[in-house]
Amino acid sequence: MTGDMSDALPMSVGNVNVITTSHRGHSTDEITDMCLEKVIYVGEDLPEPLRQQALAYKESLRTIIHFYINQAKLSERTTMAAEIQSANERGLN
Predict the structure, then answer these.
(1) What is the pLDDT of residues 35-89, one digit of tens each?
(2) The whole model's pTM is what?
(3) Helices marked H in the chain
(4) Separation CA 53–CA 55 (nearest Å)
(5) Residues 61, 39: contact at Cβ < 8 Å?
(6) Alpha-carbon gap, residue 32 to 77, rounded angstroms
């Protein structure tokens, strides 16, 4: 390669979605939806019996992902509470 642009390889990043919020973080439902969009795609042209099965599977994944995101949030809060308590006990308040 000589370093000029004619030597560059063609690249594509595919579809990019940007999801923002205003004055808050993302909700558990929003994060669940973002995750599902990356994990499973159900095409519009999928034959109907398979489409219904894929949509049902996607909904079962939604329940599982939603549950574990909430568990992670609770765990993070527990960790933060313990760290704050520990800092207070060491006089770092």
Answers:
(1) 999 999 999 999 999 999 999 999 999 999 999 999 999 999 999 999 999 998 8
(2) 0.71
(3) 28-39, 48-89
(4) 6
(5) yes
(6) 19
Q: Could you report how far apart the first and last alpha carbons of the chain are, in Å?
A: 58
Q: At what angle do helices 28-39 and 48-89 cross, to 10 degrees?
A: 130
- Where does residue 26 fall: left (phi above 0), alpha (psi -120 to 50 degrees), or beta otherwise? beta
CA distance 80 to 88: 12
Tokens (6 digits) for 66: 């939603």
Please identify which residue in the block is written with the tokens 């994990």: 39
Q: Which tokens is 12 given?
A: 């594509």
Residue type, 5: M
Rounded to whole angstroms, the Cα distance separating 43 from 45 reads: 5
